[in-house]
Specification:
Number of strands: 13
Number of helices: 10
Strand content: 15-25%
Number of domains: 3
Radius of gyration: 54 Å
Order of helices and strands: HHEEEHEEEHHHEHEEHEEHHEE
Shape: rod-shaped
């Protein structure tokens, strides 16, 4: 299980499924809320229309018993006076909650017209014994002595005018029971003043069955569809991820095979698509090629070093064995020469090993012209011309070894003279070593910097060295942030140019 959920495919599938689930839940909740709000607004509009239909009949002076209240199940209606006494209600209405009026049947005056409504006393008390202004509000009836139409002296500013319906509507939610069936409704309350100056409140409801049914249907569809959609997303993501990562598995398998076989000549498959996986495969192949070249170079180096060491060791052993058997025949000078040659070769191999290991040169500053003059002064036939104050940074010993190798190589091939020049070129210190020998063919100039390479087959090993001097020189130049190139000298010989970063004074 840990291996399964530790894979990229499982993580991508889980992440995609979670993101889609969160998005769908949020979108579903928004849709449900919007749907419910729209349907509730429609129910409010229907309730308001039903209430105003009844109010228009009251405003026209139609008696309570003659009004058309409609179907109680569709639009339950209650008509009450301001003090809350019910004067009319829909037939078959058994109970109502949400309108503030508990009664469902009119009082003893329900069969009368608004003009015949009794007028209670101006000091009528409510159930708690407190004055409730009932006399003021009921005093607008025709029996109050106002002569039918009455007087506006006691009118509330918020009440509609005589024979008018208020523009204001109050909405509420509740339930109503009709013929034993209880359902949810949205109620609208509208005030109306009859031609007899009696202010009444009409409560009319609109059923919420459509809203509840639509919300339930949408919710059910979401509850069923959401798992199916998430399963589809997870399945598609799993398959797509597997297809996308199939080349990666091929690369991994091939790398495992290369590691097991240690065959660096093998390469990983490169997908046809131009995507990140293809770039990874190409980079991996480039790395394998570089590693193969490095290993091959190391093998060649070891083989060449063994070959170079074999000759002086064999010669020295022979001389020592002869000397041991016949002391008078011991060639001391030859033994010393072979020993020196071994010592130099061992030093070269050690320096190359350090350079290959990435050893950083010791930080220091020195004058390249002064160093060139010192190295040139130790050798006959070398002329040095240098500008002043050309400081570079790095290892003075390694750069001195570089110059010594260049000078020794030039003296071996020069006929008479070797010229060394040191000059500044912007941010670079430039040193050139030119000889008047035969030069290096253009097609062979890059090979001279390879290890154990000798272009002059006629030279003996004793005269020509092991073929490591120029390789060491270039490696030292690169390690110091510079370059070493070879070209043709004005006199026809070889011209080696060293460039090192110049340090500001």
């Amino acid at each position: 299980m840990r291996r399964l959920f530790g894979s990229v495919r499982a993580k991508a599938t889980l992440a995609a499924t979670v993101v889609v689930a969160v998005a769908l839940v949020a979108a579903g909740a928004a849709v449900l809320l919007s749907l419910r709000a729209d349907l509730v607004d429609q129910a409010d509009a229907q309730a308001d229309s039903a209430a105003r239909h009844v109010a228009s009949q009251l405003a026209a002076g139609i008696a309570y018993g003659d009004m058309e209240l409609g179907d109680a199940e569709e639009h339950p209606v209650q008509v009450a006076e301001e003090e809350g006494r019910l004067v009319a209600a829909s037939e078959d209405l058994e109970s109502v909650e949400g309108t503030g009026i508990a009664g469902v049947g009119p009082g003893p005056t329900a069969s009368r017209s608004p003009s015949a409504s009794p007028v209670p006393s101006a000091t009528a008390q409510d159930d708690d014994g407190e004055d409730d202004n009932h006399g003021r509000r009921s005093g607008r009836g025709s029996g109050s002595g106002k002569g039918g139409g009455g007087d506006d002296a006691g009118r509330d500013d918020d009440d509609p005018a005589v024979g008018q319906i208020s523009e204001d509507v109050r909405n509420s939610q509740g339930t109503a029971t009709v013929d034993g069936d209880t359902a949810a409704y949205r109620f609208a309350a509208v005030e109306v003043t009859t031609p007899q100056d009696v202010t009444l409140t009409v409560h009319a409801g609109a059923p919420l069955a459509a809203e509840q049914g639509a919300v339930r249907t949408a919710l059910t569809a979401m509850l069923i569809g959401l798992p199916l959609l998430l399963a589809t997303v997870a399945g598609v993501t799993w398959r797509v991820t597997r297809r996308a990562l199939r080349p990666v598995e091929g690369i991994r398998g091939e790398m495992a095979a290369i590691t097991a076989s240690q065959n660096l000549a093998r390469r990983v498959p490169v997908p046809a698509a131009h995507d990140e996986v293809a770039r990874l495969a190409r980079t991996t192949n480039e790395t394998l090629a570089a590693l193969e070249a490095s290993v091959e170079r190391q093998r060649r180096f070891v083989a060449d070093a063994s070959h170079e060491l074999r000759s002086p060791i064999a010669s020295l052993r022979t001389q020592l064995e002869v000397g041991a058997a016949h002391p008078e025949l011991l060639d001391v000078a030859g033994a010393v020469e072979d020993t020196v040659r071994l010592q130099r070769l061992a030093a070269d191999l050690l320096l190359l090993a350090r350079l290959d290991a990435g050893e950083r040169p010791v930080d220091g500053r020195f004058d390249l012209g002064v160093l060139a003059a010192e190295e040139g002064g130790r050798r006959a036939g070398v002329a040095v011309a240098a500008e002043d104050a050309l400081e570079v940074s790095g290892s003075r010993g390694q750069v001195g070894r570089l110059l010594a190798n260049l000078l020794d190589n030039a003296r071996r091939h020069a006929r008479e003279r070797v010229e060394v020049r040191v000059r500044g070129d912007g941010g670079w210190a430039v040193l050139t070593v030119a000889d008047d020998g035969d030069g290096i063919p253009a097609g062979q100039r890059d090979r001279v910097f390879e290890r154990f390479v000798r272009l002059d087959d006629a030279r003996s090993r004793d005269d020509g060295g092991a073929g490591l001097g120029l390789a060491i020189a270039r490696d030292v130049a690169v390690r110091h942030g510079g370059t070493l190139t070879v070209g043709e000298a004005p006199a026809g010989g070889a011209l080696f140019e060293l460039r090192l970063p110049r340090q500001a004074s």
